[in-house]
Amino acid sequence: MLKRVLITATCLLLLGAAAPQASLHLTFEGLRSQKGSIRLCLWHDATGYPDCTRGTGATKESVSAANPVLDITGLPPGDYAISAIHDENDNKKLDKSFIGMPTEGVAFSNNAKVSFGPPKFEKVRFHVEGETTQTLRMRYFL
Question: What is the pLDDT of residues 78-97, one digit of tens each?
Fold first, then answer.
């Protein structure tokens, strides 16, 4: 009897130790060209958002603008946010005009509106559980 209890307890611990995982399927639309890359940061919290260069806690990914689809697997379920740029010249940064306007495309999860700066983290946050899909529309200002 004790042996059966120990085996059952061990099995339950092993099953419980395997945390559930989620996946995220991303599609980018509205690109003005197939040149360069789409560079994105997947944020689990607002620390450093939306600047990928300062965001130490963000997961950084890139995908060719010629095939703007990306799957991210093995995520713990929870809330996330995405900031992305269409790095047309592949210089690994968002190019801006002399007045600070982006000259390359930008996108945010939930297709949050951009006005006088990036949208707040609360506007771009979305829940990931199981298989989740987001379609992000690139916006160009110049």
Answer: 999 999 999 999 999 999 99
- CB distance 45 to 11 below 8 Å: no
- Domains within the chain, CATH numbers bracketed: 20-137 (2.60.40)
Q: Are the beta carbons of 118 and 50 closer than 8 angstroms?
A: yes
pLDDT in tens, 5-16: 344 444 444 444
CA distance 139 to 29: 9
Contacts of 110 by beta carbon, 8 Å cutoff, 6+ apart: 123, 124, 125, 126, 134
DSSP conformation letters of the chain: -HHHHHHHHHHHHHHHHS---EEEEEEEE--S-S-SEEEEEEESSSTTTT-TTT-TTSEEEEEETTS-EEEEEEEPSEEEEEEEEEETT-SSS--B-TTS-BSSEEEEGGG---SSSPPPHHHH-EEE-SEEEEEEE-B---
Tell me the whole-structure pTM to 2 decimals.
Answer: 0.85
